[in-house]
């Protein structure tokens, strides 16, 4: 295929340079968005009289035909083309002759690629957001079923205080709700129109950038043409938001991996979301969760690639910026793949409530409540803390728990203890008494679920 820019050159570009320079193998996925941008540009050219309105209509019809043929498979991308922009323009010229050549009036590939990737990522953000919302909804549904399922809460991976499984799930629901906010914020800053920036300094033609912005559903044109063709902040911001989503999925995956081990056995993954061993017949491996955890590092690499690519670029466009697509496309593809696999894995897991309750009973995680029992009877907290610590030591030495320790032992250390101490330190009471905003009590978690569901309705 002859190069659109070949007039300046006396020699053909080396075939290896062509391969090195080509981007259609990865930017071809933007064909729909490239054609959308071109239709808007052609519409504007015709309405402003920059080209004949009749030719504008022919161009639009031609572009619509190319889109229909690509969608149906009647037309395939030419992998010999330099990029998707050149492919579409060449195909249009093949179909319309000189009329097709008028499409590129008052436009550069620099602003063309800038508008294409914004249009493409705008659609991808909507899809990612929908997947995140589905996961949040799943967490809310599961939490509603487990508002009284006692489990140990941890710090330092040590059993700390009794909570409920619902409380634990809603922590992740709130993390993911923030992720939705980050995606929304990225969308707001992304949704401005670089089309009309041309190569870097706009054009002498009387273009209407407000018109193309309206046609492409952008909020406004970009205010500076140099920035219009050289900005990739939105790619970096989206990769950062995706990295944070992946970090949250990775943390949750780590817990699922732990919980599905025999050492914890809090959950059992459905057979459809686990794998076996080639040599050990007893194994049931949490491969999905492990892959999510592993792919998180890959997405972090995409973010670092984008930051490194942009860090030393002078204004305006530089060919380095072609590297933005593979990195951001990979981040987008990876998070979507992880979300669509993670959600059903979680939804189909069997929750082993009895094992959670048994683990909570073994770790003296009601010790704080024992100390609070004394505080409520007038003792300073630090004194109550010391007495309770001594009681825990006695339990360790005698193989008992705070629930099974005789009242006589309690009273030997402090006369404030009475029979009601056993009710105060029951695991259910410890969790349900924490009916503070954000706490693990049933009423509190139900409020959290309602708040998250309300936020989803307005997302």
Short structural description:
This protein has 459 residues and is mainly alpha-helical. It has 20 helices and six strands. A hairpin with a 2-residue loop joins β1 (150-155) and β2.
What would you say this structure looks like, in words?
It contains 20 helices and 6 strands. It is mainly alpha-helical. It has a two-stranded antiparallel sheet. The protein has a two-stranded parallel ribbon with strand order 3-4. The longest helix has 37 residues. The protein is elongated. It starts with 14 loop residues before the first helix and ends with a helix. The model has no long low-confidence stretch (mean pLDDT 95).
Strand content: under 5%
User: What is the first-to-last residue Cα distance?
Assistant: 47 Å
Mean pLDDT: 95
What is the spatial order of strands in the main beta sheet?
A: 1-2
Which CATH architecture of the largest domain?
Up-down Bundle
Instruction: Domain count, please report it.
Output: 3
Helix content: 55-70%
* Main beta-sheet strand count, sense and barrel state: 2 strands, antiparallel
Overall SS class: mainly alpha
**Count of helices?**
20
Element string (H = helix, E = strand)? HHHHHHHEEHEHEHHEHHEHHHHHHH
Radius of gyration: 31 Å
Which features would summarize this protein structure in a list?
459 residues; Ribonucleotide Reductase Protein R1, domain 1; 3 domains; 6 strands; Fumarase C, Chain A, domain 2; two-stranded antiparallel ribbon; elongated; Fumarase C, Chain B, domain 1; mainly alpha; 20 helices
């Amino acid at each position: 295929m002859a190069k659109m820019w070949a007039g300046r050159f006396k020699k053909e570009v080396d075939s290896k340079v062509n391969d090195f320079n080509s981007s259609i193998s990865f930017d071809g996925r933007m064909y729909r968005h490239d054609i959308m941008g071109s239709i808007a540009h052609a519409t504007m050219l015709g309405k402003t009289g920059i080209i004949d309105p009749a030719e504008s209509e022919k161009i639009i019809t031609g572009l619509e035909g190319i889109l229909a043929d690509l969608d149906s498979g009647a037309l395939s991308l030419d992998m010999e083309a330099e990029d998707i922009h050149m492919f579409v323009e060449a195909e249009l010229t093949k179909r319309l002759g000189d009329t097709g050549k008028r499409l590129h009036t008052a436009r550069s590939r620099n602003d063309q690629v800038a508008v294409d990737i914004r249009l493409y990522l705008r659609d991808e953000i909507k899809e990612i957001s929908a997947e995140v919302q589905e996961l949040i909804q799943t967490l809310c549904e599961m939490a509603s079923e487990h508002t009284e399922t006692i489990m140990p809460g941890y710090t330092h991976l040590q059993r700390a205080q009794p909570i409920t499984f619902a409380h634990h799930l809603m922590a992740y629901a709130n993390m993911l709700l923030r992720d939705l906010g980050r995606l929304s914020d990225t969308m707001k800053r992304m949704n401005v129109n670089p089309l009309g920036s041309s190569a870097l300094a706009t054009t002498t033609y009387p273009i209407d950038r407000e018109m193309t912005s309206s046609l492409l559903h952008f909020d406004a044109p970009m205010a500076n043409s140099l920035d219009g063709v050289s900005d990739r902040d939105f790619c970096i911001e989206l990769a950062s938001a995706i990295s944070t989503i992946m970090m949250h999925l990775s943390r949750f995956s780590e817990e699922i991996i732990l919980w599905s081990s025999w050492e914890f056995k809090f959950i059992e993954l459905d057979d459809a979301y686990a794998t076996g061993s080639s040599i050990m017949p007893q194994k049931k491996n949490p491969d999905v969760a492990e892959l999510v955890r592993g792919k998180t590092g890959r997405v972090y690499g995409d973010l670092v690639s984008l930051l490194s690519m942009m860090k030393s670029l002078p204004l305006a466009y530089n060919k380095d910026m072609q590297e933005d697509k593979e990195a951001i496309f990979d981040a987008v593809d990876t998070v979507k793949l992880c979300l669509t696999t993670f959600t059903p894995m979680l939804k189909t897991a069997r929750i082993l409530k009895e094992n959670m309750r048994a683990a909570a009973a073994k770790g003296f995680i009601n010790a704080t409540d024992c100390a609070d029992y004394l505080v409520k009877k007038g003792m300073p907290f630090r004194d109550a803390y010391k007495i309770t610590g001594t009681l825990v030591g006695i339990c360790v030495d005698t193989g008992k728990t705070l629930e099974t320790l005789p009242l006589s032992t309690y009273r030997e250390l402090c006369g404030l203890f009475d029979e009601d101490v056993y009710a105060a330190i029951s695991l259910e009471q410890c969790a349900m008494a924490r009916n503070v905003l954000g706490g693990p009590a049933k009423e509190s978690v139900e409020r959290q679920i309602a708040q998250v569901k309300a936020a989803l309705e307005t997302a």
